[in-house]
Each structure stands twice: as C-alpha cells, then as structure tokens.
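Hello,

Following up on my earlier ticket. Below are the two sequence lines again, exactly as submitted.
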Amino acid sequence: MLTLQSYLTLGAIIFSIGVIGIVINRKNIIIIMMCTELLLIAVNFNFIAFSYFNQDLAGQIFVFFILTVAAAEAAIGLAILVALYRNKKTIDVQELKSLRN
Amino acid sequence: MIKELIFYSFSSVLICSSLAVVLFRNPVYSAVSLILSFITSGFLWLLLEAEFLAIVLILVYVGAVMVLFLFVIMMLNINEEKEKLSFNSIAPFAVFIGLIIVIELITIIWINSNQFSNSSTVIQQSSQMGNTLLLGTELFTNYILDFEIAGFILLLAIIVAISLTLRPRKNLKTQVTSEQINVDPKKRMKLIDMKETK
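Thanks for your patience. The regenerated structure is below:
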C-alpha cells in the first residue's frame, strides 16, 4: 500500500543526501550545483505527491515553475562558473578564498 | 502490488544514484549518475499521474541541463593531479548531522500518519481529460501571469548567461554607435561651388 508517507520519506532521504553532498564536498563547484539539483528534485517529489494524494493540480503547476526557475539557475550558475574559471584558473572550493579577510 | 514493486525498486535506484552523485570523485561520473536519478524520478512521477511533468523533467533536464553540465566539465579541464582526499575535514560531523536530519524528517512524517490517512485512498481523476490538458487549461487561465513571468525569467537567464561569458576580442572592428549618432553633418561634408565645366 503506497501512501503519502512513502513518497515524503523518499523526498526527505534525497533532500538529506543533497544537503550532505553540499557540505562535505571539497573538490569543485560543479558537484555542489548538482547537489542543488538533487535538492530541487526532492522538493518537487513532495509537491507532486501532495498534488496526487489531494487531487489538487496546483502542486503540479508549482513544480512546473520550479523546473523553469531551476533551468534558469543552472544556466546562470554555469555561466558564472565559466567566468570564474577564466579569471582564477580554478574552480576548487578550497582555492576560492579571495574574499576572505 | 506491481505499483509497490515498481516504487520500491525505483526508489532504491534513485537513492543509490543520488549517493553516487555525492560520492564519486570524477565529476563526469557524478553527472551521469545525476542523469540516472533524473530519469528514475521521472518514472516515479509517472506513478503519481504527473505524466507531463515527467516528460518535461526528462526532456529539459536530461536533454538540456545535464548536457550543459557535461559541456562545462569538458571545457574546464578540471581533472588535474587532484588525487588528494575528496572530502573535507568536517565530513564525518556533516554526515552525522545529515543522518539526524533524515531521522527527524522521517519521524515527523510518520508520527502523525492518521493525519494523512483519509487522503491515502485516491479517487481517480477524470481520465477522459489527460494530465497535459488539465495542466494546460489551468496554466493558461488561472496562472497566466505566472506563466508570463516564467517566460521573462527565461529571457533574463539567456541575457545574463550571454553577457557573463561574452568576451570581446581586443582588436575587433565594430561599430561605435554613439559616434555614429553624434556625428555632425557639417564636419563630414563640405559644399563647394564649382564652375560649370565643359
């Protein structure tokens, strides 16, 4: 018997994997952006599950807009990443500390 | 019964591929695992009768966003000799905090499960109208302003991405529009009288 709780639990697990991935990463910013996509997928899971179990279409509309904004965010983030690599020659998280002190 | 089987197998695939995104050292492997998790969550959305969004997820994310990610990984040449530890020093503590987050969320979700129990028996939505038709009707009537704002956000993303990465060449011969507009005709053209010659 699939209930709403099953889907919410799945969303919670994916969300936590995304949070852990952002925090423990030391290599580069690209993996951090991929973890952001994981977080958005988890939130979309919750929206679609509530939309299905309450028979309300507003959740799916919201997921539509989240997908739009996430695509725009990925495009702008990768553009920032390319500009950063041109100036700094690295995208290592540990090296990007020019704003420190 | 078959739905439960599909749900549990696909969600275990989804969790494993999400862990692979985090744990792989090579970003190309992470990107491919993220493609797998997008496709799997698209299939899981099909179980929830969100057919249009499942197809949009696969088309937009796997077809456009992840290809963009792979292009950037290809162009940036980040596979140097970075074979040191790929996680930082606070990783065990962060994993501990993450496990606490998971346990808290699952506890909160399951502790009041009678709160959701009336909605767990789902009446089928009107199947003579497809999901795409319903979504489109809703989107173009009640949410038309939001739809146009979404289009504007996409336009803004195009402009920002191009203007961030556009780097003009040094000795590029282009028009200088302000000089062209501000030119004075009297300085450019001189009228002279000429005698009529033969």
